[in-house]
Amino acid sequence: MDNYSGRLGTPAGWKMIVRRWLFSDIPRPETTVHLFQSEYARDFVRKRFGAGGEMLSDYLAAEYLQAPIQGVRRPAVAYNPRKGQAFTRQLMQACPGVKFVPLENMTRDQLRATLDTCMVYVDFGHHPGKDRIPREAAVRGAVVIVGRTGSAAVMQDVPLPERYKFAPRADSLPALRGLIEEVFLNFDEHARAQQPYRNAIAAEPAAFESQLDRVFGRGTANRP
Q: What whole-number distance in Å separates Cα of residue 79 and Cα of residue 142?
């Protein structure tokens, strides 16, 4: 839900209306059914509105899940320049010898090819839900490192070992730099450590079908 308040591509006035509605005490109809893409969103609605609901997640395009990985893996860090810019710039300054590759001005094929060859993907922006590009990077074989914010801090949403999650603060930079260097030296070891995350992403299409059946299927009417 918090994803809508500041990230919709709408005029400022419409953003203000949505934001005021989300954070007001306007009564909601008792028949409202909340659907959540992430456990983080479910927790947000529970704490803010005292409401429950059902999970209805999503999944990646087949081209990411099924296409064979192409190219030779290189010691480089891919990143989304539209998220977490300030901290990512600090990281770049702390790692002067590391190649950083911005994921911008690319076709989908070019984006996939870049993720197929970079050893690391970092994302230190806010995660209002289970973001797409970190999952794409993971299934394409990159080692994913994220900021411990939003859904990325929730193990059910982003099931990465905690060593790959960092608070986006200056005092995290030495350990973060050290981890990137370690991944470059021992890539296969770190890739294996993130296999459960890739497995969870690969299982998302089946989970989505199950959630659809639960929310809209025949069993819905009989559920308490």
A: 11
